[in-house]
């Protein structure tokens, strides 16, 4: 079966100020299957965000080929969580989360309930009427996660979504994301710096090398799909995370 997304021979060069060139991605190949959770891990500046933006269709200026077996409908099928939560400052938390639904002109009761459920899921019920400037960094990031989930995209592209969160909230959101995946089987590409996060969440982990970014290796996580907090205690978990850590240095 062909993968949902296949990336072939992708090169990306940025022309920065004073016309200096930065080769961000070189000869990148990657497949993402339908319903799969793929983690992208690599050192800072290796091109993870660049690759994710291409997948989202936000950057089309590159060489190589990026093809979908079922092309996502713009603004409907792809949910994107940016590395820096891009919230609208003049909208409350609830109205930021419901942005995608409004864009789709979904004013249904079901849509409103979905927003309420998601606010609860990310622990922001009490802040539903607050504005972004009144939130902590982690709360802003949780709002952005809820917003990406609100319009029920088929594909979720997440750029270090949990990086700014405290360890307890992060672990809880990992389990929430897995629960959402169990019921929806969304395709997820997740950029992370954390080998533990990649191991806990992903089916496969793509390890990138430092600039220019290439995919050094793609590993299948040797754990059953069902992950619970106890999974983190398994010897296979520590062994796999340790192997990723080695590969990153
Ligand atoms: N708009 C841009 N103009 C010029 N260079 C850019 C631009 N965006 C990214 N770059 C360069 O491309 C390279 C890859 O950047 P990218 O943001 O994709 O890295 P990253 O892997 O996401 O890093 P981090 O883990 O720090 O978020 C970096 O060297 C960066 O300086
Ligand atoms: Mg980045």
Automatic annotation (TrEMBL):
GO MF annotations, alphabetized = ATP binding
| Residue ranges occupied by any ABC transporter domain in the UniProt entry | 5-235
The domain of life is Bacteria
Arranged from A to Z, the UniProt key words for this protein are:
ATP-binding, Nucleotide-binding, Transport
Query: Keyword DNA-binding on this protein?
Result: no
Listed Gene3D superfamilies: P-loop containing nucleotide triphosphate hydrolases
SMART domains linked to this entry: AAA
Task: Tell me which stretches of the chain form a coiled coil.
Answer: none
Q: What is this protein called?
A: ABC transporter ATP-binding protein
UniProt source species: Streptomyces niveus (Streptomyces spheroides)
Q: What is the lineage of its organism?
A: Bacteria, Bacillati, Actinomycetota, Actinomycetes, Kitasatosporales
């Amino acid at each position: 079966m062909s993968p949902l997304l296949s990336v072939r021979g992708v090169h990306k060069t940025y022309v920065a100020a004073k016309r200096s060139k930065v080769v961000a991605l070189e000869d990148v190949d990657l497949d993402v299957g339908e319903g799969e959770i793929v983690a992208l891990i690599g050192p800072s500046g290796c091109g993870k965000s660049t690759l994710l933006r291409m997948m989202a269709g936000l950057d089309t200026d590159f060489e190589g080929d990026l093809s979908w077996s079922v092309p996502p409908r713009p603004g409907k099928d792809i949910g994107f969580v940016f590395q820096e939560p891009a919230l609208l400052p003049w909208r409350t938390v609830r109205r930021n989360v419901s942005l995608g639904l409004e864009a789709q002109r979904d004013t249904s009761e079901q849509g409103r309930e979905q927003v309420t459920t998601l606010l609860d899921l990310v622990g922001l019920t009490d802040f539903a009427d607050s504005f972004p400037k009144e939130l902590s960094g982690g709360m802003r990031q949780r709002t952005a996660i809820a917003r990406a989930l609100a319009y029920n995209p088929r594909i979720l592209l997440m750029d270090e979504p949990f990086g700014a969160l405290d360890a307890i909230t992060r672990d809880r959101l990992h389990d929430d994301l897995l629960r959402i995946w169990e019921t929806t089987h969304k395709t997820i590409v997740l950029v992370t710096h954390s080998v533990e996060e990649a191991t806990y969440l992903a089916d496969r982990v793509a390890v990138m090398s430092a600039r220019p970014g290439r995919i050094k290796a793609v590993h299948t996580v040797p754990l059953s799909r069902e992950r619970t907090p106890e999974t983190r205690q398994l010897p296979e978990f520590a062994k796999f995370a340790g192997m990723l850590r080695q590969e990153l240095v």
